[in-house]
Design brief:
This protein has eleven helices and eleven strands. It is of the alpha/beta class. It has one domain: ComB-like (putative 2-phosphosulfolactate phosphatase). Bound molecules: D-malate (MLT). D-malate (MLT) binds next to loops.
């Protein structure tokens, strides 16, 4: 039977733990929602950078647009911040985007040693579940957290994925997967309401990003599964 494990923070994950696994990374507020939405709106690929300098270098090499934030605020001189609503098709169609964020992108980079890596959020949750069901590997879900601290928003997306999977196939969960399944069994609406109370959501609201939160909590408005191809996230075929 397939196993499903959850890590609440990327810092506790090493490459050996991911080898041969299907890895699902979640940073629902807002990096994985940005990646999903930018691909849905026609971006050619999303490259990931750990630092601002690396992002600039990659953008120069690939004629890419620069996107990202530090502490939720857009980086000076960049084309976009980290709001999913900014990535409209008129601005990004057939363009490569280089993204660097405070937590999400370093989690994605540290997860690249899995056999397959996908980016999940509420926007694409049913498509992610289908993707997992159609694969045979054991699953590792990595939540990005915020500055090294557990983030309930990412964990509730993980729990919702596990609840949906459990309705379709039997998985062997680790204790964290089991705990999150029990929590998310309250239903998606309860999870969304709880997310509004999280530290990260409250910070984004205090900065005026209310519309972003509303967008990030939408369920299944996209069927895009962002897949890592070794260089960038690209849309599933
Ligand atoms: C991150 O990667 O830390 C987040 O996406 C931060 C944010 O909401 O901008």
């Amino acid at each position: 039977m397939r196993r499903i494990e959850v890590y609440g923070l990327p810092q506790v994950v090493s490459p050996e733990m991911l080898s041969g696994k299907l890895v699902v990374v979640i940073d629902v507020l807002r990096a994985t929602t940005v990646i999903t939405n930018a691909l849905a709106n026609g971006a050619d690929g999303i490259l990931i950078a750990r630092s601002v300098e690396e992002a600039k270098m990659l953008a120069a090499t690939h004629n890419g647009l620069l996107a990202g934030e530090r502490d939720a605020i857009m980086i000076e001189g960049f084309d976009f911040g980290n709001s999913p609503l900014e990535f409209t098709s008129d601005k990004i169609f057939r363009r490569k985007i280089v993204l660097t964020t405070t937590n999400g992108t370093s989690t994605l980079l540290s997860a690249g040693s899995g056999e397959r890596l996908v980016a999940a959020c509420f926007n694409n949750i049913s498509s992610i579940v289908k993707f997992i069901l159609h694969n045979r590997q054991d699953v590792v879900i990595i939540c990005s957290g915020t500055n090294g601290k557990f983030s309930l928003d990412d964990a509730l997306v993980a729990g919702t994925i596990i609840c949906k999977l459990a309705k379709e196939q039997e998985f062997v969960p680790d204790d964290q997967a089991l705990a999150l399944k029990i929590l998310a069994d309250k239903g998606t609406l309860a999870c969304q309401t709880l997310i509004l109370e999280t530290a990260h959501a409250r910070r984004l609201i205090s900065l005026g990003f209310n519309n972003d939160i509303e967008f990030c909590l939408r369920v299944d408005n996209s069927n895009v599964v962002p897949i890592w191809n070794g260089m960038a996230f690209v849309k599933n075929a």
